[in-house]
Write a structure and sequence with these properties.
4 helices; 59% helix
Length: 88
């Protein structure tokens, strides 16, 4: 079987896609657990309903303020970990 090598850009895109899916899944769970609809979730996040819909559909290319991203990570119960710098 032939080995496929991804470029750095492709690897980054795959990581971003996985993180977007984790975030969307966490927001969907938060929305369900708290009995929210898209409108109330968008109000809580300070985002428009179309933007929240795009996030929940795991669409790519949604730009968000940093403060909103931190709030979303908190609501989605996603813990951030810091990678240790590799030794040179």
């Amino acid at each position: 079987m032939r080995k496929i090598t991804l470029t750095e850009a492709q690897r980054r895109a795959v990581r971003f896609e996985k993180k977007s899916e984790m975030l969307a899944d966490g927001l969907i769970k938060y929305k369900r657990d708290n009995g929210l609809n898209n409108e109330s979730l968008s109000d809580a996040l300070g985002l428009s309903r179309p933007t929240v819909s795009k996030l929940l559909r795991k669409e790519q290319g949604v730009s968000l303020p940093v403060e909103t991203m931190w709030l979303m990570l908190e609501l989605a119960d996603i813990k951030m970990t810091q990678k240790k710098p590799e030794e040179v």
